[in-house]
Amino acid sequence: MIGLGLIGGSVLRAARAAGRTVWGATASRDDADRARAEGFDVTTVEEALGRDPEALVVLAVPMPALPDLLRKVPAGTRLTDVTSVKGPVHDAVHRYAKQVRFVGGHPMAGTSRSGWEAGSEDLFRDAAWVVTPEEADDHLNDVMRLALDLGAHVVPTTPEEHDEAVARISHLPHVLAAVLAAVGAGGGPLALALAAGSFADGTRVAGSRPELVRAMCEGNRDALLTAVDDALGRLGAARGSLASTGGLAKTIEAGHEGRTMLVNQPPRARVTIDLTKPGALAALRNLGARGGRVVGLNGSTADAETS
Amino acid sequence: MIGLGLIGGSVLRAARAAGRTVWGATASRDDADRARAEGFDVTTVEEALGRDPEALVVLAVPMPALPDLLRKVPAGTRLTDVTSVKGPVHDAVHRYAKQVRFVGGHPMAGTSRSGWEAGSEDLFRDAAWVVTPEEADDHLNDVMRLALDLGAHVVPTTPEEHDEAVARISHLPHVLAAVLAAVGAGGGPLALALAAGSFADGTRVAGSRPELVRAMCEGNRDALLTAVDDALGRLGAARGSLASTGGLAKTIEAGHEGRTMLVNQPPRARVTIDLTKPGALAALRNLGARGGRVVGLNGSTADAETS
């Protein structure tokens, strides 16, 4: 593990709990001290990267720190990451660390707190863990096995489709939470004194560390612009409708429909995917595009659920 | 109690639990049957309104149902309400039920579910209960005592200031939740499969019954337009900044500051307000404007907390 914040620290704990041999490195002295105090093997980035050429190296650093880190990764390394954006990470890996084997990853789990102390070995239990493979091979299987060992299910897709999806369901929520928190605070002490569940829920993620939110959102700029434009269009339409007719039917009903689709996702059917066959990569990506997921690996066969 | 949905049903339960004699009426046969099954006295609207001229009548119906109901209220009735908008309710009371004594009210509590079954006698515990008195008199004291008996604290303000505040911290959150849910669902099955905490929190209130959300938001049209315009301006500025410089610093930092103000509200000092003195109404409104609240009544003295 390189990076021992919320996500990296949780991977380290969960991988050890799953019986794996783990070690880590971090630029944060606080996180390093706390991990060592819990009995973890924390060393320098260079030593961590060089210790075992067969190890699966997991990068868990903010996007802006990635280029410098990738330059230090030895050729031949088996690499994955847990960064919240995938297209720019793939680009950076190809540019700065060309001789590595890489499968992108992104566990959809977190809290509004950050750093080693916010993590836990249960963070990934029942979470979606995105992988963005460029081929179906043993390295992909190892990355999927890590996610499964940590209690997650695996959602295979492309970097582009991942980035579009998370712009809508992860990065836009942070932007809207920030906007809502600022508008609410603009109402002064009375407004804040009256704030209840809807405002507390809608602004919760605005409590996250601003530099982490910025790194996440700014790192997915192109896809986030599309999602923000969609939101601006819908909010502008709501404004126009409220001003002209006094009604919000279309806005509120579309929102209720979207929330219902989230809550009532269709029942899933079990399927298996033979990972040794030609077309396995396309089958995995197709599974993810339809809202499906890999829930187990038996040798070179993936047990999957699809809707 | 007229209206036995989430809020009305919870007032009925909590008032009985506080030792009061209660009865109710509702246009919903389902809610009436369920309330009767729990031993409550449920009758017709006319009988409920006419039974005791000294009773404190609480109206808990959606805004659109209010004019017809107010026409049925006997002259001299001591009236309050729990509607989520106050200016239009004051206007409707003055227009349709001129011979009543009225103090507007609005408990800041709820869930995304609705109807009698969603209610509970604990719903108002530690909640803010807004009152919008037009004078400081014994009827105001009775309305405040009801809120205090139900476990709430009382926030006095004007109808206009209430409506501006709740547009920001209650109605705008519903509009933004609807917009976010629709943008997320627009990402298809993959996006919904990846949705985690930030999307679930940000869209929770979009699961509320659309007709109730519409009644609430559309009933506060003017103040909500101002809040939506504020949000549109901030979201547009975020869009412009992300597109031109790639940065979201101002948006994310303002949001973090707003959230921090919500979470870390300043410590409160105890004060008392003599409700018999001239200027008592202004003192109460000033208390609310500064984020303060009434937490107890001793005879004609209000125990209050102010920041």
Give a quick rundown of the structure.
In chain A, 50% of the residues lie in helices and 15% in strands.
Summed up, the domain count of chain A is 2
Q: What is the fold-level CATH name, i.e. the topology of the largest domain in chain A?
A: Rossmann fold
CATH superfamily of the largest domain in chain A, by name, is NAD(P)-binding Rossmann-like Domain
| SSE run of chain A | HEHEHEHEHEEHEHHHHHHEHEE
CATH architecture identity of the largest domain in chain A: 3-Layer(aba) Sandwich
Shape of chain A: globular
Cα(first) to Cα(last) distance of chain A is 34 Å
Question: What structural category do the secondary elements of chain A indicate?
Answer: alpha/beta
How many strands of chain A?
10
**Stretches with pLDDT under 50, minimum 5 residues of chain A:** none
Main beta sheet of chain A: strand number and arrangement? 5 strands, mixed
Strand order of the largest sheet of chain A: 3-4-5-6-7
Q: State the oligomer.
A: homodimer
Give the CATH class of the largest domain in chain A.
Answer: Alpha Beta
Strand content of chain A: 5-15%
The Cα radius of gyration of chain A reads 21 Å
Mean pLDDT of chain A: 95
Q: Greatest chain-chain interface?
A: A-B, 100 and 100 residues
Number of helices of chain A: 13
